[in-house]
Each structure stands twice: as C-alpha cells, then as structure tokens.
Amino acid sequence: MPARGKHRRRKTGPISRGVLAAGTGGAVLALPLIGATGAHAAEQSAPAAKSAAAHSAPAAAAKKAPRTYSVVAGDYLAKIAVKEKIKGGWHKLYKDNREVVGENPSLIRPGMKLTLGAKASAPAAKSTEATPSAAKAAEPAAERQAPAEKTAAAPAEETAATGTSESNTSGYTAPVENPNVTTQYRASGASWSSGYHTGSDFQAASGTSVRSIGPGTVVSAGWSGSYGNEVVIQHSDGMYSQYAHLSSLEVSAGQTVTGGQQIGLSGSTGNSTGPHLHFEVRTGPSYGSDVDPIAYLRSHGVAI
C-alpha cells in the first residue's frame, strides 16, 4: 500500500490546462493564430500610416507655397513686408529677392516681381519624411540648441542693427554713425518754403542706417509730402525728433523704440537734391515747431 502523502497530484500551469482543455490539436493551432493576428494588424496599419503621410505632405507644401508680389508706385521693402506679414521683415524679403532687387535694397521699381516666402516649403517637406518616433526624439535636441544659438547671435545682431554700443549713459545717440552735418540749422535760402532750414542735414549715402536718437514712441511713420518718407518720434522729455527723405521705414506708429534702434534707411525721397538725412527736433509733432537739433543732442551728452 503506498505510503500516505507520497503520491501527490501533479499541478498543471495555465498553459498546460489550456492544452488539456482544448486538446492536442487545438493547442497546436492556438499559438500560430495569435502570431498571425498581430502580423495582419501590422500589415493593415502600415498602408494607413503611409497614406496619411502621403496626404499630409501635399497639404503642407500647398500651405507654404511661395507667392508673387508685383511692386507698385510708392512701395518700399519695409512697407511690403508689413502689408504681406513677412516673418523676418524687410531683411528676409530682401534676402529672398536680392537677385531681383540688386545691391541697393532701397531701390525697387514698379513692375518688379518679388517672391514672398520663397524658402518656407523646404522644412515642411523634410519633416514629413521623418518617422513619429524620430521626430519626437529630435524635439528635445532642437529645443536645447535654440537658446544657445539665440544667445550667441543676439548681441552681434543687436549691435549691428541698433548701434546701442554708441549710445551714451542717457540712452541718446546721433541719428547716423560718424555724423557729418552738411547743412546747418537755420541756414537761409530760397530752397526752403520757410526761408530757412528747419533742421540739420547729415551726410548719408542711400541705404545708411538711421537710428532713433533716444527712447520714445513713434508718432508717425510714412509719406509726408516734400519730406518724403519720414518718421516722427516723441521722447520722454516731451520733445519730438523727425527723420526725413528715408528710402525705407522699419517702424510704425505706436511702436516703442530705444535709443540707437534702427528705424529706417536713408535715401532721397520727397523734395531732395540727393541722398542725405534731414533731421529735426521739435516741441510738437508738426512742422513749424523746430528747435536747434544739434544743441538738443549735446544737451543729452551726444558728442557732435
């Protein structure tokens, strides 16, 4: 007689029980069925993903497709950039159309065909080729690189564009670099409707950077008859500065500016005998309220 407890019933695991319940034939068929189901699902998902990518690529390309703008009389690059909402402003517009415009960005003629958003479609086409996992992995790296690149580039770009390095401690600076006055304030002559010169003219070749002499708010920016393209800025002390005959504008009314910030490029628009900057300081925003602009600059510590 067998001893008590020597013969125990063997335990069967979940898989063994499943085999016993289904039978030997069922067990053989069960495992391949599961594998086939997963493979079939993968085959179905691949065409769907491929189809989605194929449809998204044309849509992205169509959305970013470049446009053509025909220049009309009175246009200048800054005006077109604002009107057409060009990201990067007139600098980007000029860069994309340099072959059409030529070496001088202030000289554009009616009838010129400018391309808007010429390079916008390239990044979108590239992104559609990346897999979702690759794109997700690339995002953190791009985010980490962006601040570093911006930090490295910003100081150089800001100094070149605004000239803030030449501003004194009061935040004021000359309206152009290396200022050279060619026509003094109150010079008399028949050339001026008032009988005298209401500002000071600075030597400035067409396309020279014109800067705000100090912090303030732009009162007006646009065409002003004999002054051509002009900008008028109100400063914190209540005085106004005016910059005339500009070839292009880079600010608009209501915008806050800092001392030394580039507001436009010099030119010869309006009633002008050649490229230069006509500069005034006024007690009010309009013609007829002028004061000595050089004396005003010197009172704010600008050596001129």
CATH architecture term of the domain at 181-299 = Distorted Sandwich
- Gyration radius, in Å: 35 Å
CATH level-3 fold name of the domain at 181-299? Glucose Permease (Domain IIA)
Main sheet characteristics? 10 strands, antiparallel
Order of helical and strand elements: HHEHHHEHHEEEEEEEEEEH
| Separation, N- and C-terminal Cα atoms | 124 Å
CATH class of the domain at 181-299: Mainly Beta
Beta-strand portion reads: 15-25%
Label this structure with key terms:
alpha+beta, Glucose Permease (Domain IIA), 10-stranded antiparallel β-sheet, 38% helix, globular
Offer a quick outline of the entry.
The protein is of the alpha+beta class and 304 residues long. Helices cover 38% and strands 19% of the residues.
How would you sum up this structure, described in words?
Among the domains are: 67-138, Membrane-bound Lytic Murein Transglycosylase D, Chain A (Roll), CATH 3.10.350; 181-299, Glucose Permease (Domain IIA) (Distorted Sandwich), CATH 2.70.70.10. The chain is 38% helix and 19% strand. It contains 8 helices and 12 strands. Strand 7 and strand 8 form a beta hairpin. The longest helix has 40 residues, at 24-63. The protein is globular.
Secondary-structure map with pairings?
Elements lengths: L13 H9 L1 H40 L3 E4 L6 H7 L5 H8 L1 H4 L11 E4 L4 H9 L2 H31 L18 E3 L16 E3 L6 E3 L4 E8 L5 E7 L4 E10 L6 E2 L4 E5 L10 E6 L7 E2 L1 H7 L5
Antiparallel strand pairs: 1-2, 3-4, 4-11, 5-10, 6-7, 6-9, 7-8, 8-10, 8-11, 11-12
Helix pairs in contact: 1-2, 2-6, 3-4
